Amino acid sequence: MNTLQELMVITMEECGELTQVCSKTIRKFNTPDEVSDKQKHKLIEEAGDVYAMIQLMIHHKLITYYDLEVRAKRKHEKLKTWSSLYDGFVE
Which partner from 2, 58, 66, 76 sits 20 to 30 angstroms from 29, CA to CA? Predict the structure, then answer.
């Protein structure tokens, strides 16, 4: 397996693990305030693993922090229109 393949496969696996924890969270809890500390710890572990892989993608020059910030801003603007996640949110 070459470097690109290894990076992509591990990133996919970590994203899958985060997806599983997110799914289990919505099955067990109804609001963010209800999420247990144990479940938050699982979310932190898996989100942190995905974040580590994003950092490695940056290190290997597949993406840049700047590109991520630009994309995140676009996504925030879209979500402000189509989602209730920003109700009462102060930037």
Answer: 76
